[in-house]
Amino acid sequence: MTHPTDDGGAFDRPAPGAAPRDRTTAPAGGAASLTGQDQPAGNAHNPVLPRRDFLLGIAGGAALLGAGRLGATVTEASRLVNRSFNVVKPGKVVIGFVSPQTGALADFATSNSFAVQRARQTHAFAKGLKSGGRSYAVDIVIKDSQSDPNRASQVARDLILNDGADLIITSSTPETDNPVALLCESEGIPCVSTVVPWQSWYAGLGGNPLKPTTKYEYNVMFFFGLEAFGKTFIPMWKRISTNKVVAEMFPNDADGNAFRAAFPAMAKAAGYTPVDGGAYPDGTSSFTSMISQFKSHHCEIYVNVPLPPDFNTFWKQAAQQNFKPKLATVAKVLLFPADVKALGHLVNNIATDVWWSPFAPYKSSIDGTTAAQLAEAYQQSTGQQWTQAIGSTYAAFEVAGKAFAAASDPRDHKDVADKLHHLRFESMNGLLDFASGPAPGVAVIEAAGAQWKPGRKGKFTDFPYALYIVDNSDARDWHVNAELQPTNP
Question: Which residues make beta-bridge pairs with 193?
């Protein structure tokens, strides 16, 4: 079995231009192997796909559709090669996993290696998947999207062509999930996406979130949607005395456009006045004009959905320019401890959404491991503070295992995809019901409100700053363990 390298998730990488290395696969009924074969972008074996323009989000009362078909797709002949791959090794199924291990979104993938290993070590994977009366060894191949949509398409294509993936799991924001899901839909490969607002994912596949009737045959996803941010953030706003003027920091990208289309209406319905700071490009280095606009409107509440490095820049500039909203509620950023370290004391009492934590009442459908036990195992194994992504990554492999087990043949992609759409079970990320969501193939999970506060003695809080649950308006079974306080009194 190969082992991770220091890049955080690229496994056993071949030299540029080299042919893929042979993988060691356990016999049916034996341990699953965990490998990875990321290749450099642009070599002859794996050409770079043209960048796609993604028009994601909702505008003018209707969703903007994703751009057209990928610039390069797998041909019918290639599909036959892929089928032959599985015929040659009939006692094995291959799961691909694509996430942003490097780049601007790398914090989302910090805990992925641990979560994949934990899932792999459960009896459902380690002793061979049981399906159709047979046992199949499981091969897991990990790829890095590098936080880039074009790269995500490329590595997903590589998983299909070169690794013979029977199912692909992808996680963490539209920049990674959407291009992977698009390619899987095009090429008939079952795909499970997570950690992306369902509207951003659905629009990215070409659907209209305002009229979500289209079913994507090979795709399912689980997470919450934009409405959950309203149900999580606005109850916290109401508990802080303010003038009800809200500064909105929404970039010109998939998440930003979706928030800009949906969030102002939610804020207005709750009696708040939104102030849009403008559709700035990702990677902006100066936010002075935006900060001046927020100050001139006397904004006392702040909400955002930027890339983590952009928020880091903005928040430091805001402190320097004396923009200090009474309550800051942030999405997509400050979800993970690494973001917190970069801001230091400026992170105190910033609020965010939480979709998994050791304080959540969830457990594994495979072996009964609780959320608290999984978080504790991560901290003991890595010496690092727990992160939210542990639960969603682990749960995605629960979904894959359930679908394979329900299928008559785990390598029958159409049958596995059909089984994905009918799954309903309690997981490490709560109830996942793919048949009854707001859109076909969408399972909605709960979200709680939390704040970063100085650490205190405790198994999951003994760190310089820890994430405490302060509001459970949309997650009633979650345990609240701290008081909501103003970000800036």
Answer: 170, 221
Banded pLDDT at 89 (limits 50, 70, 90): low
Rounded-to-integer distance, Cα 137 and Cα 31, Å: 7
CATH number of 33-224+359-444: 3.40.50.2300
- pLDDT top residue among 364 and 33: 364
Tell me the per-residue pLDDT of 428-484, one tens digit each, with 9 for 90 and over.
999 999 999 999 999 999 999 999 999 998 889 999 999 999 999 999 999 999 999
Residues of the chain with CATH 3.40.50.2300: 33-224+359-444, 227-353+447-471
Task: Write the DSSP symbol of residue 139.
Answer: E
Closest listed residue to residue 228, CA positions, set 467, 424, 386, 437: 437
CA angle 123, 141, 135 (to 5 degrees): 35
pLDDT of residue 341: 86
Q: Exposure of 197 by Cβ count < 10 A (0-12 exposed, 13-18 middle, 19+ buried)? A: buried
- pTM of the predicted model, to two decimals? 0.80
DSSP helix/strand/coil, 162: coil
Give the domain 227-353+447-471 fold. Answer: Rossmann fold (3.40.50)
User: Which contiguous run of DSSP H or E holds residue 425?
Assistant: strand 424-427
Q: Rg of the chain's alpha carbons, rounded to an integer? A: 22
Give 246's strand partners.
274, 301
